[in-house]
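Exam revision sheet. Question 4 asks you to relate a sequence to its structure. Input first:
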Amino acid sequence: MTAAVRPLTDAIGAELVRPELAGPDDVVLSWEGRAVVAVRLPGLSHSLDRILAALERDHGKPLAELDRKEKQRIVRNLEARGAFAVRHGVETVAGALGVSRFTVYNYLNRERASGGR
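Answer key, structure tokens:
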């Protein structure tokens, strides 16, 4: 079972721990009624860092080197994923995109004003 969930835990930056070591915020996975492994989820800010790193890998270059339209698309997608609910999310995204917080807020406001189109 551990091998089956490993790609998911790696993608989200989670950690697999023995069930007996599970804390109150860990998710214990069972197989046929027996606890097999616990998943320790990462903090939200860590998840945002992983998402931004994955976006850089997908684009093949630093996000700061993307054009304005692509940066706007990334901000729109990150907002849909809840990235800006994370403490310092705007600052983190702005730094990765090589723009100011003000610019990120402008992208968000423009998106909201257009009704998400």
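Marking note for examiners. The chain has five helices and three strands.
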